[in-house]
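User: C-alpha cells for this one?
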Amino acid sequence: MQDEASYICDACGEDIVIPIDISAGERQRYVEDCPVCCRANVIHVEINDDAVATVWAESEQDHE
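Assistant:
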C-alpha cells in the first residue's frame, strides 16, 4: 500500500509530498494550499486496484 505521493504545484512548480488516505475512496478531490507559495491547488487522487495512487494538481483559480 502506498502511503505517500507527490504533486507539482501549479503556481510555483515545487514537488509537494502528501499523505494518501485510501479510506477516503478511489477518487478524491480537495483543495490544499501549497506549503511553499501558499497558493491554493485542487488536488486529484485516483487509487487503482493495486492501491497505487496517481496524484495531480490544478490551480484553484482554474476551477472558479
